Batch of 2 targets.
Target 1
Amino acid sequence: MLEEFMNKIKLYIISGFLGSGKTTLLKQMLTQWQGQKVAILMNELGQFNVDSTILGDDTPMNELLNGCICCDLKSDVEVQLHDIRHRHQPDIIIIEATGVAHPVEIYDACLAPSLTSYIQIQSILTLVDGPRFLARAKYSVTTVQLMEEQVRYAHSVMINKKDLMTEDEIDLVRQQIQQLNSTGDIYVTSYSAVPDSVFELEGKKRESHQHLHHGIQSMVYTFSAPVDSRQFVNWLRELPDSLLRIKGYIKFRENPGQVVLFQYSYGIPQYEAEDMNLPLKLVVIGEQLDKNKILDQLDQLQFS
Ligand SMILES: Nc1nc2c(ncn2[C@@H]2O[C@H](COP(=O)(O)OP(=O)(O)OP(=O)(O)O)[C@@H](O)[C@H]2O)c(=O)[nH]1
């Protein structure tokens, strides 16, 4: 059974390297969505969140301080998102990640099986500091890779700090972004000022997601009964590289009373016995997911 999204909280992830204009974009989103109930989850590497003072007290804000949600604070994201949902019942949640966060890891952190019935990830918006991106060769290989992956996995890329670039530089950075991400929407901005229509468009496009095949995507499958473990392993063996992560709860026919926490990352599966009787949901994350094919394959596992 494929879990669809209706009346869920819309989640936007703002990604982008240090100082690229993420908070500046966040402020714009809050202005744009004044009529809606918006809550923020802010992640800072340090102990103090400077941006909370910039944003004021009007919007509910949870904070994840002193670490990065894509690694050491990953499991806290689930707790914080549940907390925001219970305390504020927002229409929209915006996550501002740290500048060093990897977008796939944040996406993954927001897709805990316990959240997928309530929250729908709408979009990863990546801010690029145009001049810094052009000069990225001066950084370490790891930093360059991170900057490029933030672009690669975005649904929309804002090439920011247009005011600090010549027309030729803007063309060059646009070409480089297009090479990294040929399907995402690209905007060239000053002070993260995207046209108002972008936010409406984002929502509409995600809702008609069947027509949208770009960027990182997810699907949730719910099993109604245990599956055959050998068939499951055979299914894993055939998965394409574009499938980035799977996680969730499953039962196998050999031991049908035991719930198993299953995680699959970089092609490596992990199985762990789970004490609680949790719903048997699998979250699948990948690029250009062929959802119908995966749905058929999981149905086959389930019903064969
Ligand atoms: N010249 C120029 N400055 C900008 C632009 N956009 C943002 N800034 C400035 O760049 C600095 C960083 O902007 P932020 O919005 O705080 O960036 P951030 O990505 O949230 O930064 P961190 O949270 O530190 O990673 C601020 O001083 C902004 O005023 C722009 O388009 N042009």
Target 2
Amino acid sequence: MASYFPNITLGNLPQQLLQHIQSLSTGDLLQYALIAGGASVFSCVFVYIPVRFIYRVYFHPLAGIPGPKFQLISLYFSRVYWTTNGNKGTFLFRLQGWHEKYGPIVRTAPNMIHFNDIDTYNQIFKVGTKYPKSATLYTNLTTQGSLLNITDFHEAHLRRGALQPYFSKQSVRRLEGLINSKVSKFLDRLDGMDTINISRGFRCLACDVITTYSYEQCFEALEDPAFAPDWLLAFESLLDIPPFAEIFPPLMIFLTWFFEKLDRATIRKISPSVSAVLDFTDQCSTAVRRQKSRWDAGEKDMVTIFAQLFQDDPKKGRKASTDSELGADALLTVSAGMDTLGHTLTQATYYLVKNPDIQSKLLSELKTVMKNPRDDVSEEALEHLPFLQACLKESLRFAHGAPGPLPRDVPPSGATIMGHYLPPGTITSTSQYFYHTNPDIFPEPLKFNPERWLAEDTREQEKYFVPFSRGARVCIGLNLAWGELSLTLARLVRRYEVSFSDEFKEENMQWKALFVPITKGPLLVNVKERRE
Ligand code: HEM
């Protein structure tokens, strides 16, 4: 066997090394490789990681910001910790403990901070902000190419500008007939149903409204006998993506690439859920492509929220969206509204059933604009009902929209927030959950109490109320959401007495924070039609 330390002289080192390597047998090479590998692992574990940890704790520009030190050891270590062993979706609640311990600004990763301060929130989440969405964290593959993942200000501004007119208050008012017709269908479906999974029912309703509006093609989710179309069940199972995909994002990219190469029948055999989600994604893309063909053929008076995206806008310097961007936005508009709306209506119904006195106060108010249980109503009439509006706000406060940390990058100029200098590229993050549960603003924050919104002066509550986020990237669908929330809740409560089903367990309502809140189980109810 060759010596590991060959007799070489410095004069002609590279050549001598090459000759030495060429003289080695395969067995020798393997031994060298093992020794080199072992030495690398050893120095990584016992030298590189500890030295890097010491740098991060004492010498990094963010060293002055308090926080749990174990979060600074390794990003991979953190990812493994927060995605396995029942920890998934609980980061938000741990953050709460850290804020109690360390104060309103906490360093949560080597290059990331989390703050709980509404004035800083308003500085970062404002129109004209210099803090873009974080490029390293808005990378979800299912929304790739869509508005949600755009981090560049100008590009996002142009894309939003093309979609926004269809979501203005006036546009949503014109949609009232559509929303009311879907709500009627939803309520008619409840009639005669036994145990109702109303969490899914609400999501089917949201899906049918937005698909009809977006692509003039209702996906007829409300037709499903149990409000459980395949794609909805598949989305439910895939929302909780497996830990390995979060721990090794490249693996997810590889799997996506791999699935793209397979035909649908093979995918169906490997994973029926992935196949159902892909079918749904195709359905959205096909619907929007069909509209584009009609548009290109000269049918310019069609109603589609994508009309402006079909064409260049030379004045603004916006290029027409590509087919894959259109498909991504088509999927986003359905998915962005479905879970958020469904969850908010689920919270509203749960707390009204749990608090009969609140429900009966709401019912009395609703009777002033809906004489009969089956009456239609306009959103404008509902806007003048203070108690209903208070119930909706309280439900949104409990639903939290996108509760977990929303990440934004510090601009190239760097920034000072809450007395700490943050170098360019630092990721800042904050969570609406903390504002909505601040006990100084919302006393007894975990009590569903609509009355808090009826106080003489609610400016402080409004300041802390951010279910749709704020500023340049505020939810584009918020007017539509208000329309759907108020018409659905008002007409549901006016028409039916809702009660918990015997199969319903309180623990179902425990939730964890993925990008949206996911409850442990569904809200299961029974309904009885009101006589008057
Ligand atoms: C109760 C209902 C809803 C809530 C609480 C809600 C909440 C939110 C929040 C918090 C964001 C910001 C996310 C971020 O910064 O990453 C957002 C973004 C967005 N929402 Fe909603 N949403 C709701 C309903 C809807 C509906 C019905 C639509 C239908 C079109 C919609 C479409 C969008 C879109 C497209 C974005 C991305 C905007 C952008 O990145 O510029 N949302 N929503």
